[in-house]
Amino acid sequence: MSVVKSKKSEDAAQSRSSVEEQFRLGNGAAQRGFEQAASVTREQFDRASKTLFKNYEEFSELSKENIDAFVKSGTIVAKGFEEAGKAWIDFTRRSFETSMETAKAVMSCKDLREVVDVQSDYARTSFDSLVNEGSKLSELGVKVANEALEPIQSRINVTVEKILKPAAA
Predict the structure, then answer these.
(1) Alpha-carbon gap, residue 94 to 129, rounded angstroms
(2) Domain membership flag for residue 91
């Protein structure tokens, strides 16, 4: 009976040893699998982070350049308004001087016919000056609008190109 008991003890010890060995091997495999999964996850996270930061830097630079373009455009518009304002003030000053000269000429007229002639000349020259000045201001407005749109249009082209570049890839 002692041989049977001893055999059972040996078998139990061997089974326990085998189970422990299987557990140790399984635990080692699980740990290696976990470490490998963690390593792959870390690498993917690092790549995603680098891409995110790169995209953020590109977006920041793009935004800065867009803001610079709007500032440049605003400066062009402001200068255009300044130029138009100066032209309008100059036109008003010249019109006032012409009006004063006409008033003096009317006062020195000897008859009604001469008054009508002076007044007619004044009306014609004033109208021609107004049309001429209006044309100059219109041309200035178109010129300023085109110049002001140029930096913005340039940035729109760059932005669209950057947006479509990843989509095409």
Answers:
(1) 10
(2) yes
Flag whether 38 is in a domain: no
| DSSP single-letter state for residue 169 | -
Provide the domain count of the chain: 1
Do residues 152 and 70 lie in contact, with contact meaning Cβ atoms separated by under 8 Å? yes
Per the domain annotation, does 126 fall within a domain? yes
Q: Does some domain include residue 147?
A: yes
**Model's pTM, two decimal places?**
0.62
Quote the CA–CA distance of 44 and 36 in Å, as a whole number. 12
For residues 101 and 143, the answer to whether their CB atoms sit within 8 Å is: no
For residue 84, give its domain range.
60-168
Q: Give the separation between CA 167 and CA 159, rounded to whole angstroms.
A: 13
- Condensed to tens digits (0 to 9), the pLDDT of residues 36-78 reads 876 777 888 778 777 777 777 878 888 888 889 999 999 999 9
What the block records as the tokens of 3 is 């041989």
**Sequence-ordered list of residues with C-beta below 8 angstroms from that of 17, at least 6 positions apart, any chain:** none
| Cα–Cα distance for residue pair 151/72, rounded to 1 Å | 7
